[in-house]
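Structure ticket #2291
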Amino acid sequence: MYTSKIEGIGHYVPENIVKNGDLEKIMDTSDKWIVERTGIEERRWFDPEKDTVANMGTRAAKMALERANTDVNEIDFIVFATITPDYFFPGSGVLMQRELGLQGIGALDIRNACSGFIYALSTADQFIKSGMYKTVLVVGAEIQSSALDKSTEGRSSAIIFADGAGAAVLKRNEEGSGVLSTHLHADGDFAEELYMKDPGSSREVRLSKDLLDSGSFNVVMNGNVVFKHAIVRFKEVIEEALLKNELAAEDIDLLIPHQANLRISNFVQKQMGLPENKVFNNIMHVGNTTAASIPIAMSQAWEQGRIKENDLLCLAAFGSGFTWASALIRW
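Resolution: structure written out below.
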């Protein structure tokens, strides 16, 4: 049976750096307040004149392809995770396909928010394991900043979410290394605890002045509920992956959690009994980039020499849906 292996990883973050001090000028907040609650010191917000979800994904993909020593024409299929597509439809996967000059191959968009990249990785892994494809490009990309309420009323979300893209080149592998297993879960009972209601198709009028005035186009998040569920589900889904592969927490060389909140990552680290050097966090400098979070972190960890050949890598995510997921990878 085939396995799949990540041969290259890449990322792109916008040049526009927004520090906590910049937010102090537009809302009632402070650097101390933001750092204490989220760990974030700065984040990247897109440049409307330069950045799109598709072209950020393209930049990340080109970096991943170069690191994988893979020609773009070797790509058989694209799995693109985003909840902020450039158009309502079609998805950004086909737009990135066009930018890469890959017309004709399949492109699938995944809308699983913060868990999106692991869901996309799992999908690509199954395609490769089945023998259907040899090389799959997996991308997570988001532009969240354009949907944020950047007033004091919306600060609980505005201080957290950010923009960026990450990509991985997944190839068929006949050795033991690669993606060992992936684990996907959801519970729609909590859908409205973290969501953006509009634009939604089930309205009598999809877009109206009343809808715009209602604020239903802004992100809504019940932070306390999200935190309480996240710290439980993170641990559960990591342990599920370890149990599946008959491994223990101490076997993990690096845990890369979705960068939702530094407090959540630190809590999970303590729950799993992992030392600080076995958990990678970059939320301090890039914020929460939703589906782009894990691949950006993976790419930066690889750049810093934190991921080495034969390392056991664990990815874990929790977010809107609620959805949660994990992947165990032998690098």
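Closing remark: The chain has a mean pLDDT of 95.
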